[in-house]
Every structure is written in structure tokens, then in C-alpha cells.
Amino acid sequence: MSFGQGKIWMDGAFVDWADANCHVMSHVVHYGSGVFEGLRCYDRQDAGPGIFRLQDHVKRLYDSATIYRMEIPYTPAEFAQAIVDTVKVNGLRSCYIRPVVYRGLGSMGVNPLNCPVRSAIAAWNWGKYLGDEAMENGVSVCVSSWRRAAPNTFPALAKANGNYLNSQLIKMEALQNGYDEGIALDSHGYVSEGSGENIFLVRGGVIYTPPSSASILPGITRHCVFTLARELDIRIEQHEIPREMLYVADEVFFSGTAAEVTPVSHIDGVKIGNGKRGPVTERIQSEFFRIIEGKCKDRYAWFTPVA
Length: 307
Ligand code: PMP
What we know:
Blueprint: E1 7-10, E2 13-16, H1 27-31, E3 34-36, E4 39-44, E5 48-52, H2 54-67, H3 76-89, E6 95-103, E7 117-124, H4 134-137, E8 139-143, H5 164-176, E9 181-185, E10 191-194, E11 198-203, E12 206-209, H6 220-231, E13 236-238, H7 243-247, E14 251-256, E15 260-267, E16 270-271, H8 279-292, E17 303-305
Bound molecules: 4'-deoxy-4'-aminopyridoxal-5'-phosphate.
Residues 38, 167, 193, 196-198, 217, 219-222, 255-257 line the site of 4'-deoxy-4'-aminopyridoxal-5'-phosphate.
């Protein structure tokens, strides 16, 4: 099932992709009032299709909704089941899943409280976000001229639709200048994250990543990197990262549901390390892939089986 085909779960029922419409006067269209998630389902060797870190994504979705005072009219367990059902109904084994919860048609004006909270879940096949080749050779990125929103402006911990206007500026600028992705700094000038990925750098064998106070989304893949680094006995620290530390890093890599674990080869034209995937990145990445491909036991119970 590719993008544009199959069934979408909408407010409790499955509808054809073409009929999954939302009114043009819905609050979300005008004011960005929605929260969402991005998950992946992997077709694991032997174990079959499994949704990766389902409960963690559902938790973050409900947290995002809480921040924006949206009451989702389902329990987290019901919503999680709807995500599983969406994969099943579409007969997918390996896919990307996009749940969205948004303010629908009610009244106009900034006050969202009179608009119904609506939800939808779509799923489709989606390959490597930053390209197949990137997994080994890395991506070439720039430091964006756009900053992440300052603390207490747009809450970074919420995965809210409106936040992605900032991500779009970062992404468009990067692409237009010939880069694969952009890295944003936070309002203080410290490294924050990519337009849709968390960032890590390696120096002297230690992994560093910005803390949640650096306007980052608390990534679920980022959490996997922490878990795997500790298991592999690699020191990992959350630290404010000055921009210039990127250029002198031994290795840099991204993490994200879409990007998985992707090495960064160049930043602003500066070669990072040897300009290829470095050894620490490779250890984390290969362990991550062993787990998602089902080549080892799901020892952290990261998967929810679809069958
Ligand atoms: N930061 C941003 C801005 C993102 O959009 C994403 C993707 N959801 C991430 C980080 C990575 O988060 P996760 O690992 O949970 O996908």
C-alpha cells in the first residue's frame, strides 16, 4: 500500500483514503491546532510485523495533547489498538504510520475550545527517509539560519503541527542550498536538532547530545540510542553543544523514526571525521538494525506484534 491508497482510520471508523477529508474551516487548517506522531512498523525476520515503541509514541501523543488542552475521546489503549488495526486493515507488514489529533470544525477565532477534537491514522510504505545510500555514506547537512523556538514560546516537547512550520523553513533552506538536511541551533545559539531528527556527536569515544532544555523533541529513537550506548558500554552525555563542536567532532549522526540512525558526513562543507560513517555510529546503528530487523531477541520489548 503506497501513499494515497488503502483505508484511513477516522474518528473510530475506517474510510477510503479519498474520503478521509477534513473541512476547510477546521480550526487546524487556520491555526495549526493539532498534534501528531510518526511510527514505523517493521517486518521482522521470524517474528513478523511489529510496531516499534507503540506505547511510547501513544504516550507522547497524549502528552502533546495535554500541553494543548486537547481531550482525546479515546483511552490510550483504544488509540494504540486503532494504530494496530490500521496496519492490519491495510495488509501492511512494513510501513510508516501517522496518527494525527486535531481541532475540527466548530467556530472561527483563536479560541480552540469550541472545536471538536478529531483523530485520524494513516499508514503506507515508506523507505529510508534520507535515502538508502545515506545509511552508510552519511548525509551532507548545514547549520540553519533558522533557530528553534525559544523556551516558553512554542513548547518543544509537544509534537504539534504548528511546530513544523519552523522545521519546514529549516528543511527548505537546506535543500535549496544543496544540502540533505539542516541543523537548527536553539535560541541561545547551542545545537538543538535537525528539522525532523535528534542529533548526536562523538568526540574522544564519548557520545554527546543536546538536553531537553535545548528546544528538542524528546525523540523515541534518541531514547533507543541511550539504551544501546549504555548496553555497548559507550559513555553518553546530555550536554549543551556549541556550534563549532560539530565541525571538530569525530562523528555526527541523526536519530529519528523516519531517519532511523543516519550518519552525517559533512556539515557546512566541513568533512566530519573521515567523511564516512564512524565506528561508534556504526556500532549503534548496526545494533539498532539488528533489533528492528528481528535478527536478535526483542530484549527491551520495543515491539507490539501486529498479528
Ligand atoms: N525532532 C523532531 C523535530 C522530529 O520531528 C522528530 C521525528 N519525530 C525527532 C526529533 C525524532 O523523534 P523520534 O525518534 O521519536 O521519531
